[in-house]
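Q: What structure does this chain adopt?
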Amino acid sequence: MKLAVFDFDSTLMDGETIDFLAKPLGLEEKVASITERAMAGELDFFDSLSTRVALLEGLEKSKVEQICQNLPMMNGATEVVAGLKERGYKVICFSGGFRTATYLACKKLGIDADFSNVLHEKNGILTGKVGGDMMFGFSKGDMLQRLQNILGIGREDTLVVGDGANDLSMFEFADTRVAFCAKPILKESATHIVDTKDLREILKISI
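A:
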């Protein structure tokens, strides 16, 4: 058995979930600018996530669900998951984003499990608070190590794919590290770089 772990936003999905959620509130540009700086490694991930989610306060849960049902998947997402499974991989999604989005997408793509965060709501309205599995810059690396221990899989049989600074922690614990249309800070730690928006390119790597 081998393990493949994908980031969600701007990797499995073409865009950032939180930017889509901010659009109905007229805050897309403000949120997107914070996201951009966080993914470039200029901001602490926990602080940036908390700041962005606070801006979503007042958004209806039903609107969140509607948006998440219609997020655009990255070109080749279905094919790369199927291709890796054929090669004996367990395919997992780690996201600093939200389970409302990752659960639906991973079910659609045939991904084995997703680990992400939950937007807190009361009476069907977002409170501007968030909690979950992927709140910190170190979270993906920490979770990857735990999964490797549970499954008995070493770093030599681990493939990770991401695009931003919060993927750096999981890059530490995998021998095959793909920077997908990524920020420079992540490319520096990658073993492979894919600059074409097509996840099928990953299947060309000797894995």
